[in-house]
Structure formats: structure tokens, C-alpha cells
Design a protein that fits this description.
single chain, alpha+beta, Tachylectin-2, Chain A, five-stranded antiparallel sheet
């Protein structure tokens, strides 16, 4: 037998061995399990738009430092954002932008649509944008992090009233949908303060429809989900009607073990109603990846939203792009989510500086959430907190 023939035979045998080993690995149980996990995760990940950031700091002094953390509603076949803008003076105000497709926002008003009443009278040298002095997005006062729902014939917006770290309360304003669409923003009703005086609360959200005929306000998701029901938002604002909520630092709760969401921070956008439950997105931090906000997903029972049906085992959005790190690094902070033509649009702030959007087909997203979701939410020591 010639050497060349022997070499060809050995090469052929080796190729059969390699191919056999490859097929064996491909069809092995561990590989197939991992492949299913990867495909499952891919269906749960939100796809970030190639156009991100879709809104950025502007030339007007009141938008010069940051535009971020937008609320979102769909009315009259358009997506409407109410975003937080931080000006050169360090005040947070609410601005407006509109879009026909939910991605390109070509209707951005040059003036704020809502401004805080009588912000704190600080010395002039402290009245400025400063992420170091004021780590809450660099703002020392004003209206922060709005969330919006279109409910019946009005648009309701909850937001954080920030007037220094000793005064952080949750408030709501509302406006008729016709006035909102026509940009008659002088018609706001409120603010109606929701949280109790002397307590620090942030990031409460309204459900986009009444439950059992009453407004439902989700005011805590850690250490457990808490929902308050009220006959009227306008009626809130007296000592008797303030909402009693869990008081404490979320970062002080025990870390959840063996999960990515070791420290659950707050709800993101208002819950999105689906035929399989309320979809609630939330912010959390992994103790093994500290300092980086990520977004998780829960599916809540339609009739009893304190009951968790499913939960994504991994984050659905993480701060990996440059626009999510150029500013305050490691931040994706979602305040708005809508569904258009079967697609879930999630609007979020990147790096406390710009507005971004990420999407997913709602049907396959919910399928993946239900197939792989773990319903557990409680902290390992929640019963003792």
C-alpha cells in the first residue's frame, strides 16, 4: 500500500471520527438542553433599535443635560412619550414627543408640558445639573421618571416629586385624552399626592384599567407585591387617603439567592394587559454584577395581580451598549411600554442621559416567559422584614 493511499485512508477515518464526535455532541442531552435554553433566552431578549438613542439632550436649556425615562401611551394611532428632561439649572421637567411608528419621534415640542410647582429654594451655586451632588439623574428637584396610562377618557401620569433627599413623594396628574392629543397641556389636573408625608417613596404605577371598578396603584414589588385600590385619584391628597406602603431601602433587603435579580428595585412601566396575565417589567441588580440596572419580567394574575404566575429566569434587557454607559454607566431604566400590531415596545433611559427603545414580538415573548418562568418572587427572608 502506497503512503499516499494510507494517508488518505487515515484522513478519511479521522474525518469520520470528527464528524461522529460532532454529531454525538450535537445530539447529546446536555447540548440539546443548552440549545433549548439559548433559544428560549433569545425569545425573551428585547431587541434594541438600530436608531438608539431615539431622543437625546437638546439645544433648549431645559433639555440641555439629559432626556430620559419616558412614559408611553398609544392614542389616535400614534405613540406619545412624556419624558423627563434635565436642564442646565438642574431641574427635572416633563417634555413631549410623538411618533407614527413608535421609533422615529418627529414631533418633539420645544417647551415643557409640565413643570414642578415651587421647587426648593437652594443657593444659586447649588442650582445646577450635577450627577455628583445629585445622583438622582443629576437633578436637584422637579418631576422625575413619569409613568403614563390611558384609562377611560383620561391620561394619568404618576411621577416622583423630588425636592431633595428629605422630600421624595409620589404624585399623579391627569388630562382629558382629547386635550392630550391636541397638546392642550395647560389642562392638567393635579398634582394629587399619593404617598404619605415624611416617607420616601418612588416609582409607583397605575394599572391601565380599573380592577373591580376601582383604580389600582402598584406601589411596591419588594419585599412583596402591594396594590392599593381607590375610587378616585383626584380624591387622594388628604391624610386619610394617602397610600400606606412598605417603608425601607430596597437595597437593605436580603439578597435573593441563586437568581440574577439579587436586589429588586422597583416596577418599570405600568403593567401591560395581555390575554395571559398582566405583564410587569421591573428593575433589579445582580449582586455578582453590581452597579448595573437590568430589566426583568413578571406575569401577574389578571384577577389578583399580587399573584405571580411566571417570571423570566434571566434579564430581558441589560446595559451593554455605549449609549447605556456614556453618562451614569450601567443603566437601562424603563418607564414606558406599549403594544402596537402585536409588538411590545419598551421605552427606557440609557445612562441617565438619552431615550431608547427595544422591542419583541409579544406572542413569542409571552410563550417563552410562560415556558421557562419561575413564579417565586419573595426574598429568602421576606417574612422577617
Amino acid at each position: 500500500m502506497s503512503l499516499s493511499l494510507l494517508a488518505n485512508i487515515l484522513a478519511l477515518l479521522f474525518s469520520f471520527f470528527v464528524v461522529g464526535a460532532l454529531f454525538g455532541a450535537l445530539f447529546s442531552k446536555p447540548f440539546r438542553k443548552r440549545l433549548v435554553e439559548v433559544l428560549h433566552l433569545q425569545r425573551l431578549l428585547l431587541a434594541k433599535s438600530d436608531r438608539n438613542p431615539i431622543l437625546a439632550p437638546g439645544k433648549n436649556p431645559w433639555t440641555a443635560e439629559a432626556v430620559m425615562n419616558p412614559a408611553a401611551v398609544v392614542l389616535a394611532n400614534r405613540t406619545h412619550l412624556i419624558y423627563r428632561a434635565v436642564g442646565m439649572d438642574g431641574v427635572s421637567r416633563l417634555g413631549y414627543a410623538g411618533s407614527a411608528d413608535g421609533v422615529v419621534f418627529d414631533a418633539q415640542l420645544p417647551y415643557p408640558v409640565y413643570v414642578a410647582q415651587n421647587p426648593r429654594n437652594l443657593p444659586d451655586h447649588m442650582r445646577r445639573y450635577s450627577p455628583i451632588l445629585y445622583p438622582s439623574g443629576g437633578s436637584w428637584g422637579g418631576c422625575e421618571d413619569p409613568r403614563a396610562v390611558a384609562l377611560e377618557d383620561r391620561v394619568y401620569i404618576t411621577f416622583n416629586m423630588f425636592d431633595g433627599w428629605d422630600f421624595i413623594r409620589v404624585a399623579a396628574i391627569s388630562i382629558a385624552q382629547d386635550d392630550f392629543i391636541a397638546h392642550r397641556f395647560g389642562e392638567w389636573k393635579g398634582p394629587h399626592i399619593l404617598s404619605r408625608p415624611g416617607e420616601i417613596h418612588k416609582n409607583w404605577v397605575l394599572f391601565p384599567e380599573k380592577i373591580n371598578g376601582r383604580f389600582a396603584i402598584l406601589h411596591s414589588i419588594a419585599p412583596e407585591i402591594e396594590i392599593a385600590y381607590r375610587d378616585s385619584i383626584e380624591g387622594i391628597g388628604t391624610e386619610e387617603s394617602f397610600i400606606e406602603s412598605w417603608v425601607g431601602a430596597r437595597g437593605g433587603l436580603p439578597a435573593r439567592e441563586n437568581t440574577w435579580d439579587s436586589f429588586i428595585r422597583s416596577a418599570g412601566p405600568p403593567p401591560v394587559k395581555t390575554d395571559r396575565g398582566w405583564l410587569l417589567l421591573y428593575h433589579a441588580i445582580d449582586e455578582h454584577d453590581p452597579g448595573r440596572y437590568k430589566l426583568g419580567a413578571l406575569l401577574l394574575d389578571l384577577s389578583d395581580p399580587t399573584k405571580v404566575l411566571h417570571r423570566a429566569a434571566l434579564p430581558i434587557l441589560s446595559p451593554d451598549e455605549h449609549y447605556e454607559n456614556n453618562g451614569k454607566p450601567g443603566i437601562v431604566y424603563a418607564c414606558g411600554a406599549v403594544v402596537r400590531d402585536g409588538t411590545l415596545f419598551v421605552y427606557y433611559g440609557g445612562a441617565d442621559r438619552v431615550v431608547c427603545v427595544a422591542t419583541a414580538p409579544l406572542g413569542s415573548f409571552l410563550d417563552a416567559l410562560i415556558e421557562g418562568g419561575n413564579p417565586s418572587l419573595e426574598s429568602r427572608s421576606a417574612q422577617t422584614v
